[in-house]
Amino acid sequence: MPSKLVSPPSIEPVTLAEAKLHLRVESAMTDDDALITALITSARMLGEQITRRAFITQSWQTVLDTFPAPGQNVGSANWYGPQWGNSPGPLTTLRADGRTGFELFLDHAPLITVDSISYIDIDGVTQTLSSALYKVDSITEPCRVVPAYGNTWPGTRNEINAVTVNYTCGYGAAAASVPEPIKSWIKLRVGAMYENREEFATGRSIVAIEMPFIDGLLQNYRVQTY
After folding, report:
1. Tens of pLDDT along 167-191?
2. How far is CA 52 from the centre of its chain?
3. Same domain, yes or no, for 212 and 110?
4. Same domain for 88 and 124
5. What angle (nearest 5°) sits at the alpha carbon of residue 83, between those of residues 77 and 89?
6. Measuring CA to CA, how many Å separate 164 from each of 6, 103, 209, 217?
7. Are residue 144 and residue 49 in the same domain, yes or no?
8. DSSP 3-state of 40
9. Considering only CA atoms, which of 2, 110, 1, 105 is closest in space to residue 48?
10. pLDDT digits (tens, 9 = 90+) for 116-144
């Protein structure tokens, strides 16, 4: 599911002052302020990529060609009653992993809210799906959205990007909402990049900075499956 950032975070989890304190750079020395600020942003974006999370509140958009559904004309439909997607009723487990096939997964956690779900109907008209017609599970990670009880996803026109989901995610709008291990990892990453500013130093490549212990700070925050 392709996703794009709509509204980036308005602040960073680590302030410039916090980073300079960690780097032992005097607050009065401002020559490297722009560099340190850029490193904070780079470290935060890398941490979000590694964990598949949003650290500070931000808005994302996910698009699909159609609403998710189990494979059509599968033999299991004979065991579970009417063909999937044609009749209302509770969603019955179809797969061994407990999924029904109707789950729409959002690829950034933690979820704050699903802002809207729109789709192009079979007549080519863009519709906004009522929030009463779907249920959001923000406890599971990644978050899943499924049809509300007694409903199925509506039909869509056969064209690309027919379904658009806008949602807001993150730990909160304040840096204090971000877990401390994540903030510590960002500061340590900033320190490593600040001390190693070039791709090569004295003939030695430093493109990949190995930090296995430090990277363990993010281990408990990784979203493991999609």
Report:
1. 999 999 999 999 999 999 999 999 9
2. 5
3. no
4. yes
5. 105
6. 12, 15, 38, 34
7. no
8. helix
9. 110
10. 999 999 999 999 999 999 999 999 999 99
